[in-house]
Fold this protein.
Amino acid sequence: MSRKVIVTVSREYGSGGKRIAKELANRLNIPYYDKEILSAMSKESGIDEELHEQMDNQVSQDDYYFNLGVAKFVAPSSVLGELSLLERIYQTQKKVICDLSKNSCVIVGRCSDYILRDDPDVIHVYIRANIEDKKYRAIHSYGENENAIENTLADMDKRRANYYNYFTNQIWGKISNYDLVLNTSKLGTQEAVDVIEKFVEVRK
């Protein structure tokens, strides 16, 4: 594998995207990054890792509205007062991801597809699945409460979308942002890894 390989993986909750990303990194023998980015961000910025996670949750949970690429948001005054800190955290995250992308790796989430959108070496992947399969995986693999599973799925994807939309002013899950969109209800997770691995091999 002479050419640098970077794969960003965005995924719907319950689609198996993280498992696919980990297996892909193992097969390609390259580093895998997800929550590890938080630790690197903390070291870079001097901001406590717990605070990064709190900010993630704050952005995810509040109601932000995005239309035609123009950010419009409604948020508590406490959040408005912390926008400069939010932006600092995002810029640190961006720097860490750009530094990681100097070498081959697989990166899950963290707006990495947007941050690395102009890098010709990057392959952007979006993993989705049918609702019933996401329910089953979330209950049996992630240990989610069966009685609240529909709300859990909707809430997790809303958080991811709000986080992404807030920092990028783009639409999370928009097909044109990705090189590959794979449905694990049609392929299965191992087969999805096969497809991505083949794509890496034959890309121009």
Summary: The chain has ten helices and seven strands.
